[in-house]
Amino acid sequence: MRIAIVGAGFAGLASAKVLRQLGHEVTVHDKAPDVGGVWSLTRRYPGLRTQNNKQTYRYSDHPMPRAFPQWLEGAQVQQYLEAYVDRFGLAPCLRLGTEVERAAPAEGGGWEVVTSGQEAGTEHFDHLVVANGIFCEPAIPDFDGVAELTAAGGRLIATSELASLDEVRDRHVVMVGYGKSSCDVAVEVSRVAASTTVVARGLLWKVPRRIKGVLNYKYLLLTRLGEGLFPYQRLSGVERVLHARDSALPGAMLGSVEKVVTGQLGLDRLGLVPEAPFASIAKASVSLATEGFYEAVADGTIGVHRDTVVARFLEKDGRPHAELTDGAVVPADVVVCGTGFRQEVPFLPEEVQRRLLDERGNFALYRQILPVDVPDLTFAGYNSSFFSPLSAEMSAVWIGSYLSGHHRVPDAATMRAVVRERVAWMEERTDGHSARGTNVVPFSMHNIDEVLAEVGLDVGRGTKALQWLLPVRPASYRRITRRLARRVGSADSP
Questions:
Q1: At 61, which CATH number?
Q2: Which of 5, 210, 305, 382 is the residue whose CA sits 20 to 30 A from 36?
Q3: For residue 385, which of 120, 14, 44, 113 has the smallest C-alpha distance?
């Protein structure tokens, strides 16, 4: 097949590599001038680093360089992806600096893809893979008083739009949000800004890179045991025992971690203990504690206003300020929003988008991949995961297997029922914050297991047993694509 892929991040590149290995002709489009997606030079904010250590944040068949540190800077991740392109000969497939303006179903099947930029034009493809990422467009709240802010010389941007610390040097900065990006940027900004104020609508639990300064957090949360502490949609095996008869064991284990984290980060002393218990991380995502953040709060370099939001912007004493709902008024020369992203596919016609979404606007994708009612279309990387590169790669394996007729999916009615049940559970579990049906955290390995089980390829029981106590090693899955390629070589056509 001739396959178009939208996006040259982890998901898009993995899809290109796997699908080419299965014999397809692939073209990858990305409006950025380089590969990387959120790690592109065009989107990297100061202080951007990985949450995972380098042994777990990687593809299965492409190790991180030994010289790289345990937690990678944004530029190093982008270098890793460039090396992946070189190793697997993907450069001829790439059309960088080329934006997909429109992709519409073609008569007789396939897609007409219209592009602009470096290689503008219109082409027909047999299949379309959407890999533009679930963090594709920054979501900036609709603040009151933005006109007053800008009139007074202030600036409102997303974290991904902060290209250099020179933009905030000697200025008063307000960081909106308490997620990883907000705290990462706050630490970097505080080193050069006149003042740095973090405005947090709610506090999230943060996990130190090393618990008690010794135990790498990967042994806590990047194992099957760590995942198993939270009740999945359906319990089986060891998890059924863990949660039998409302067992107090998972809660006790998480409670002990909460006490350690609270003490290690000094949350009591700083007044930054989240209201929800540590187990609430299952409702959103685990955020790694930014090195130096709590130290900067302790010495007054960073101020945090918790459980509050920006009520409005206004001019005061000739300068822009932010008035908060807790009554505080703080100077705001630059307002940086780490307030999440919107999952959008603006290049698809509205009629197609309606068929992708449920009545609440969630992506209704079977296995987080297949839209039941739109032919010749799949999604890769639409599963926010602890193991995003591996999850994206295994999604690509599923797509390749499906297109090759190696595995069959249930009938449309059954798939719709599975998706409805899945999304309803996700919405309930996250209190309505399922990232439009894409958030699989903390059940990353469950998602990978389900994808590979349907394909009929997986790692062995021994490997999975080790994953209960040791961090998951993406390298354990390096033979999956090769095994699929061998099987597809003798498989019947779809």
A1: 3.50.50.60
A2: 210
A3: 14
Q: Is 46 left (phi over 0), alpha (psi -120 to 50) or beta?
A: beta
Environment class of residue 31 by beta-carbon count within 10 Å: exposed (0-12), middle (13-18) or buried (19+)?
Answer: buried
Residue 370 corresponds to which amino acid? L
Tell me: pLDDT of 432 over 90. no
80-89, 184-193, 231-240, 308-317 — which is least confidently predicted? 231-240
In sequence order, the β-bridge partners of residue 197 are 174, 303
Of 308, 340, 372, which residue sits at a domain end? 340
Interhelix angle 480-488/10-21, nearest 10 degrees:
40
Do the bridges between strand 302-306 and strand 195-200 make them parallel or antiparallel, or are there none, so unpaired? parallel
- Both 157 and 191 in one domain: the answer is yes
Whether 227 and 203 map to the same domain: the answer is yes
Strands of 94-96's sheet, edge to edge?
A: 94-96, 25-30, 2-6, 127-130, 377-379
Same-domain pairing of 298 and 170 = yes
Distance CA 66, CA 230 (A): 33
Residues 181 and 101 in one domain: no
Backbone angles phi, psi at 14, to 5 degrees: -65, -40
Give tens-digit pLDDT for 64-104.
999 999 999 999 999 999 999 999 999 999 999 999 999 99
Q: How many domains does the chain have?
A: 2
- Which candidate, 411, 410, 439, places its Cα nearest to that of 423? 439
Domain limits for position 217: 141-340
Q: Is 354 exposed, middle or buried (0-12, 13-18, 19+ CB in 10 A)?
A: exposed
Rounded CA-CA distance 184/384 in Å is 19
> Can you tell me the distance from the alpha carbon of 345 to that of 113, in angstroms, rounded to the nearest whole number?
13
Q: What is the DSSP letter of 91?
A: G
Please list, in sequence order, all residues whose beta carbon lies within 8 angstroms of the beta carbon of residue 128, skipping any fewer than 6 positions away.
3, 4, 5, 6, 103, 111, 113, 376, 377, 378
